[in-house]
């Protein structure tokens, strides 16, 4: 009846995780301690983004046909590109999730994440601006046939903007704890 | 990037603070340090390119994988009774002036409701010879949508598509509740007089699964993003979710057709 139901009907990109946010900014510490919390905040940011990508990837890979229809519904890509994007994107998300989870090439992964999130926001905003009805009239509760719930475009944009901010901050300061980057000594100052 | 090793120092540094003298010197003058430096360089270029290669390989492998999966479904058995102008199930005289199409999912509750509130009007208009009705069974709510649609097509092989279609909508369970098992689909067949081994075999085998997948994909190429979607003479009509709305749309289409 609730969000999960809508998710199964709506044919959209599947970037639908209502992920918690705001883990990067903690109250500022006195100077000496600033370096203590930053790497841990970056770790939290890494894991947050990794979780979101993994969730998005698994949702799409588990129903590739729906992913194709969702990409097509945005009416942004020529038909020849619809399938490659719908099929390739979730695996890129999976690879990003993997890199972020283990903390390898964190800056690159965060930067690519930011670019993807930016592209998603453009796609959502364009769909909104053009008034596309990318949703389903089927509700688990069986409401009246004419009550078609509008898609929460604003909510999706706000969510993606939050994730984008996290990704940008992480790309800016990628040093984090529990990261392979640290172990391999490839961390940049 | 390759020679910087300062840790826990978020602020930008020149990289020379820890090793002020050697860092700026060309590698050749370092003597025995050179192997270590080139090793480090090799390692850091691996660390740069490795993840980029991983991303690219993941995307290419994903596309290859899904494309192979899609090709494995390339053989599509088209039900012989799908005779509508757009390849769906057709009800009514082919000469009727207005074509009304519905894209529906047998698990979709709003489709079930449409069946109660609007479909009687559809039958009436069909009986009056004013419209042809074409139903496109699509499956996007879940696996049970697919097996139900396949069973309806198998029923169609014996001339019982509409009876089976009506029964599926009259007796809907909550979506993806697991109610539409093979046994249940066979039982519904018995209720409309289908007991032949051929029907049962096609239900069990999912004989028309690939065709249903194809119809579902084609629906999105016609900009169908929800069910039920109703088209009148090829144009989506949102107001056709009510009987009056459908009637008005049919009148308008008939009027514009005769002018």
Summarize the structure.
Chain A is 64% helix and 0% strand.
Can you give a write-up of this model?
The complex is a heterodimer of chains A (189) and B (259). Chain A contains 7 helices and no strands. Chain A has 189 residues and is an all-alpha fold. Chain A has one domain. In chain A, helix 2 crosses helix 4, helix 2 crosses helix 6 and helix 3 crosses helix 4. The radius of gyration of chain A is 18 Å and the shape is elongated. Chain A starts with a helix and ends in a 5-residue tail after the last helix. The N terminus of chain A is likely disordered. Chain B is elongated. Chain B is α+β, with helices and mostly antiparallel strands and 259 residues long. The N terminus of chain B is likely disordered. Chain B has 2 domains: 42 residues; 170 residues, Glutaredoxin. At the A-B interface, helix 1, helix 2, helix 3, helix 4 and helix 5 of A face helix 2, helix 3 and helix 9 of B.
Question: Main beta sheet of chain B, described?
Answer: 5 strands, mixed
Percent helix range of chain A: 55-70%
DSSP helical segment count of chain A: 7
- What would CATH call the architecture of the largest domain in chain B? 3-Layer(aba) Sandwich
Q: What's the name of the CATH homologous superfamily of the largest domain in chain B?
A: Glutaredoxin
User: Taking all residues together, what is the mean pLDDT of chain A?
Assistant: 77
Please give the number of β-strands of chain B. 5
Count up the helices of chain B: 10
Domain count of chain B, please report it: 2
Secondary structure layout:
The complex is a heterodimer of chains A (189) and B (259).
Chain A: H1 3-9, H2 31-61, H3 64-73, H4 79-102, H5 106-129, H6 153-172, H7 180-184
Chain B: H1 20-24, H2 34-71, E1 89-91, E2 98-104, H3 109-117, H4 119-127, E3 131-137, H5 143-156, H6 161-170, H7 182-191, H8 197-205, H9 209-221, E4 229-232, E5 235-236, H10 243-258
Parallel strand pairs in B: 2-3
Antiparallel strand pairs in B: 1-3, 2-4, 4-5
Helix pairs in contact in B: 5-6, 5-7, 5-8, 7-8
């Amino acid at each position: 009846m609730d969000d999960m139901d809508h998710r199964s009907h709506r044919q959209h990109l599947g970037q639908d995780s209502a992920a918690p946010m705001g883990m990067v900014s903690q109250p500022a510490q006195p100077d000496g301690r600033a370096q203590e919390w930053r790497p841990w905040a970056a770790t939290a940011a890494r894991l947050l983004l990794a979780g979101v990508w993994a969730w998005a990837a698994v949702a799409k890979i588990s129903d590739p046909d729906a992913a194709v229809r969702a990409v097509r519904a945005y009416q942004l890509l020529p038909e020849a590109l619809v399938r490659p994007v719908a099929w390739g994107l979730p695996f890129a998300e999976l690879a990003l999730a993997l890199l972020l989870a283990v903390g390898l090439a964190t800056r690159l992964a965060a930067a690519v994440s930011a670019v993807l999130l930016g592209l998603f926001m453009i796609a959502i905003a364009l769909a909104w601006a053009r008034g596309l009805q990318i949703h389903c009239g089927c509700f688990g509760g069986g409401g009246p046939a004419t009550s078609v719930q509008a898609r929460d475009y604003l909510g999706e944009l706000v969510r993606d903007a939050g994730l984008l901010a996290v990704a940008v901050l992480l790309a800016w300061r990628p040093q984090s704890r529990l990261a392979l980057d640290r172990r391999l000594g490839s961390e940049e100052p | 990037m390759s020679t910087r090793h300062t840790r826990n120092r978020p602020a930008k540094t020149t990289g020379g603070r820890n090793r002020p003298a050697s860092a700026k010197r060309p590698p050749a003058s370092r003597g025995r340090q050179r192997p270590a430096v080139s090793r480090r360089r090799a390692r850091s270029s691996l660390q740069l390119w490795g993840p980029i290669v991983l991303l690219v390989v993941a995307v290419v492998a994903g596309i290859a994988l899904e494309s192979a999966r899609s090709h494995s479904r390339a053989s599509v058995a088209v039900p012989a009774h799908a005779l509508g102008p757009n390849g769906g199930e057709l009800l009514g005289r082919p000469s009727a002036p207005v074509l009304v199409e519905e894209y529906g999912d047998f698990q979709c509750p709003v489709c079930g409701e449409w069946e109660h509130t609007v479909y009687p009007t559809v039958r009436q208009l069909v009986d009056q010879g004013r419209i042809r009705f074409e139903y496109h069974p699509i499956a996007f709510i879940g696996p049970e949508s697919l097996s139900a649609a396949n069973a309806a097509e198998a029923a169609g092989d014996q001339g019982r598509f509409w009876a089976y279609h009506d029964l599926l909508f009259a007796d809907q369970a909550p979506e993806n509740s697991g109610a539409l098992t093979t046994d249940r689909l066979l039982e519904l067949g018995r209720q409309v007089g289908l007991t032949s081994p051929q029907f049962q075999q096609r239900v069990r085998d999912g004989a028309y699964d690939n065709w249903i997948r194809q119809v579902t994909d084609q629906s999105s190429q016609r900009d169908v993003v929800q069910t039920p979607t109703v088209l009148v003479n090829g144009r989506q009509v949102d107001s056709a979710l009510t009987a009056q709305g459908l009637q008005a749309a049919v009148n308008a289409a008939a009027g514009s057709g005769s002018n």
